[in-house]
């Protein structure tokens, strides 16, 4: 277990440094997690700068979001991570980032629709640009259990969703591994910048 | 004292390198300070590039802005730092940066208003996105004592303000520590980019 | 041969790191190749992140796109590389990147036309800004042989073309050496950003 | 002399790396020079990538633009450097860069006018934002002696000009030292981005 925890922590620290270089984790926004086992995850602790994480910036939690390491408080948004791990045992990593484009689009749209972009193939089971990618936008809330219930219900009805936005608050996406979730972040941020630039040209 | 000075200098040098990587301290613009005690601050000296500071780029000053190190001249805008330290003993760091967005917004608006952004929670005593953040814009002036008096009067009337813009000249913000002030810079620059992009979409 | 392969691999790895720093190779998009001889190329293997390539991320292929290294699968788009090497023995490197600007322009234009830009001189046989550079846009397809045939036919009619876009999918360009192809990427991406900004100002 | 040459070369190499990180020296555009004495300059040689210069990428030239080092060819635009060194013995460095903003603005405006920006104080003899900065735009030409004559005549009439643009071709600025010229590049590029963003908001 310890070796796995150490490897995942290293991968999440590197992910945070990359996101910081792009401006996607401003201030103490964002949070990252990875699965340690059937009933346990590793997650960033509350109040850290996600671009400057060190080994101390993480703790273990169960799938109900209870801390398993004494004296540490998990991110306030832990419930939005655990809902995904409970839904799907194949999910090994959940990443939440907070870019300008994700924020601006989420404040102007009810969903982000992507058609005809080759990069849509970055997602599992998509093998052509000639597909239709829909990223829903949920209203923001400080009541995380309520927000997690909204997400859970949406996924019951739309199981193939690859990520979602919270209004004014950023992006959640996931994958089997940290590398997979990271690829989804890169693909979605790329698409958000494309959609923003298209909107500017369309006015 | 010497150890504290050394640590704060190191933190301000690193802050400057980060700002430079983002393009927020062009030419010899911007200046940074941190509190050394009840009546003393550390501040960048005049004419330095703030992205390439070394230990020699700082001097000590009292809260009236007088140099306490012989042969060095504090930044011309020292009075805008000292007014904050005099107002509030809890302030440990004042940062002034000079980004394109801060400059452009300050030339077109009398205040920057932010509503519904999750990142507003980066500021003390804000615990929901459902708050209202107002960043005032003051006219620029080469008469720093006069400008400091305008700032001082504004804060008497609006004590919860977290930062302000000077027209065509950039951003001032602060915090209990260098890390707090840095978080405020990151949050405000993120918000300025969001507001600019919203303005483009709104035309 | 081995020394040449090693040198070209190193150059392509560095090219990928540079493109990643600019955001031009998101997720596992893009692919790179270089000529090893009359009938052999080095090409990135399928599914790699092109900003984090290592020596294992490449394989040798013939000019029909067949793998020459056992157990490795070349990029799905190998046929768009080999068509160029077959057409012109002077081509030593083919680079495909995937930037936001290339994507957005390719979804709105049938060709990108550049006039009066000094940087047009980055291309062979262009010695004045007072030239006319035309980058065609081809419809995207998951049928690479069909797409390669479209490209081949276009070049029969337009032999002096220096690069092309695939709709929603990015840029292909080439050169005698990796350095030459890299210079063409830089020049074309520069021009795409100029054209995008001009389009915004023209609305 | 040798120590001075070595120091200036190191400073120009570092300047090129910084410009490259900002995207201001795409492909083999741009060129840099510094004064070695009353009648001699150091200048980048033709065809180099200005973000990856090494010691071999420079040569000495006289103030008429003749190479003083055998076997090396100075930049095609050497005449635009030497005209400045001949005009003013206080000039120690001339930098030419090639950014997207400089290019786009130069293709839409006959002059770039800046008013009310604090960063205008980056230029000699400007001590207030309440000044008026005018950057002229000259038509591009491959006839460098003719272009140098246009520049020379303009400066006879407008001796306080701090930089100029060539249409579709980028920026020339200078200073007493490499650091001074670099500060002017940073200030002008900052202003160009501000002016571009203002133009977008003004449409």
UniProtKB/TrEMBL annotation, chains A, B, C, D:
Cofactor(s) listed: Zn(2+)
One GO term describing the cellular component: cytosol
Pfam families: Aldolase_II
Cofactor binding: number and manner: Binds 1 zinc ion per subunit.
GO BP: any one term: pentose catabolic process
Signal peptide segment: none
Catalytic reaction equation(s): 5-(methylsulfanyl)-D-ribulose 1-phosphate = 5-methylsulfanyl-2,3-dioxopentyl phosphate + H2O
Enzyme Commission number(s) from the entry: 4.2.1.109
Segments forming a coiled coil: none
Function, in words: Catalyzes the dehydration of methylthioribulose-1-phosphate (MTRu-1-P) into 2,3-diketo-5-methylthiopentyl-1-phosphate (DK-MTP-1-P).
Lineage of the organism: Bacteria, Pseudomonadati, Pseudomonadota, Gammaproteobacteria, Thiotrichales
Biochemical pathway: Amino-acid biosynthesis; L-methionine biosynthesis via salvage pathway; L-methionine from S-methyl-5-thio-alpha-D-ribose 1-phosphate: step 2/6
Name of the protein in its database record: Methylthioribulose-1-phosphate dehydratase
Family per record: Belongs to the aldolase class II family. MtnB subfamily.
Binding site residues for Zn(2+): 96, 98
SMART domains named in the record: Aldolase_II
GO MF annotation list: aldehyde-lyase activity; methylthioribulose 1-phosphate dehydratase activity; zinc ion binding
Stretches assigned to the Class II aldolase/adducin N-terminal domain: 10-196
Database matches in InterPro entries: Aldolase_class_II_sugar_metab, Aldolase_II/adducin_N, Aldolase_II/adducin_N_sf, MethylthioRu-1-P_deHdtase_MtnB
């Amino acid at each position: 277990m310890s070796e796995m925890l150490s490897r995942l922590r290293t991968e999440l620290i590197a992910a945070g440094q990359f996101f910081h270089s792009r401006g996607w984790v401003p201030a103490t926004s964002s949070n990252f997690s990875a699965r340690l086992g059937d009933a346990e995850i590793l997650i960033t602790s509350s109040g850290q700068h996600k671009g400057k994480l060190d080994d101390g910036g993480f703790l273990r939690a169960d799938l109900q979001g209870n801390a398993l390491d004494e004296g540490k408080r998990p991110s306030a948004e832990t419930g939005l991570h655990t809902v995904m791990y409970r839904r799907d045992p194949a999910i090994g990593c959940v990443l939440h980032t907070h870019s300008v484009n994700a924020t601006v689009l989420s404040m102007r749209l009810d969903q982000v629709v992507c058609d005809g972009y080759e990069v849509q193939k970055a997602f599992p089971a998509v093998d052509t640009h000639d597909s239709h990618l829909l990223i829903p936008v949920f209203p923001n809330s400080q009541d995380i259990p309520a927000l997690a219930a909204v997400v859970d219900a949406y996924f019951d009805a739309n199981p193939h969703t690859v990520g979602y936005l919270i209004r004014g608050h950023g992006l959640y996406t996931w994958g089997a591994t940290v590398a997979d979730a990271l690829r989804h972040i890169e693909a979605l941020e790329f698409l958000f910048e494309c959609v923003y630039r298209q909107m500017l040209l369309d006015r």
